[in-house]
């Protein structure tokens, strides 16, 4: 026998696995209230094992129409110490036929990292924004003071000229 290993693999694995080939029988449905769309596929009988189920349903999330707020803006609960998970709820920003909120569950470490990064970034961004605003306010005040000083100098020069003309 020239290929004994190949024959053995074919005998062991080829008979055990049922091959099921399906074809699409229709389009995706509209998004459900849960944020899922479904499609039903039909078995290709000539290319499939007779033990296969005649239809299969495929579901996937509706992502193209539903826009939710960013995770850093979500409302997060406390870390559940038993399961080491934290639950967050994000609100719908735009989309039709979408659930109003989406609830996500993350490992507590992921959520802490998420809070740390966005929290620090937001705090620094807020501080920098406040500093820039204070600097603009100070610049505006300085500019007004310089204008006032120039105006006073002009008025003083004009008064000096008028006094000099009155004496001549």
Give a verbal description of the structure:
With 168 residues, the chain is of the alpha+beta class. It has a domain of 43 residues. Helices cover 42% and strands 23% of the residues. The chain has two helices and seven strands. The strands form two sheets. Strands 4, 5, 6 and 7 form a four-stranded antiparallel β-sheet that branches. A three-stranded antiparallel β-sheet has the order 1-2-3, with no helix packed on it. A hairpin with a 6-residue loop joins β6 and β7. The longest helix is centred in the last third of the chain and has 60 residues.
Present the secondary structure layout.
Elements: H1 4-14, E1 22-24, E2 36-43, E3 55-61, E4 67-68, E5 75-76, E6 85-94, E7 101-107, H2 108-167
Antiparallel strand pairs: 1-2, 2-3, 4-6, 5-6, 6-7
The helix-and-strand class reads alpha+beta
Strand-and-helix sequence, N→C? HEEEEEEEH
What general form does the structure show?
elongated
Level of helix content?
40-55%
Largest sheet, in brief, is: 4 strands, antiparallel
Determine the number of helices (DSSP H or I, runs of at least 4 residues): 2
How many β-strand stretches? 7
Strand content: 15-25%
- Residue runs with pLDDT of under 50 for 5 or more positions: 1-17
Calculate the mean pLDDT score and round it.
Answer: 76
**Spatial separation of the terminal alpha carbons:** 133 Å
What value does the Rg take, in angstroms? Answer: 36 Å
List keywords for this structure.
single chain; 168 residues; alpha+beta; 2 helices; elongated; disordered N terminus
Quick description:
The protein has two helices and seven strands. With 168 residues, the chain is an alpha+beta fold.
């Amino acid at each position: 026998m020239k290929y004994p290993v190949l024959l053995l693999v074919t005998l062991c694995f080829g008979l055990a696995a049922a091959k099921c080939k399906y074809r699409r029988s229709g389009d995706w449905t509209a998004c459900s209230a849960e944020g899922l769309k479904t499609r039903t596929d039909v078995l290709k009988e000539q290319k499939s094992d007779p033990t296969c189920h005649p239809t299969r349903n495929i579901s996937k999330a509706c992502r193209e129409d539903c826009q939710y707020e960013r995770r850093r803006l979500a409302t997060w609960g406390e870390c559940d110490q038993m399961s080491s998970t934290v639950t967050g709820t994000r609100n719908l920003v735009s989309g039709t036929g979408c659930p109003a909120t989406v609830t996500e569950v993350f490992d507590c470490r992921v959520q802490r990292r998420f809070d740390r990064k966005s929290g620090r970034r937001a705090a620094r961004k807020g501080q920098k924004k406040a500093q820039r605003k204070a600097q603009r306010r100070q610049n505006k005040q300085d500019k007004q003071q310089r204008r006032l000083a120039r105006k006073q100098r002009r008025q003083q020069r004009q008064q000096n000229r008028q006094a000099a003309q009155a004496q001549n």
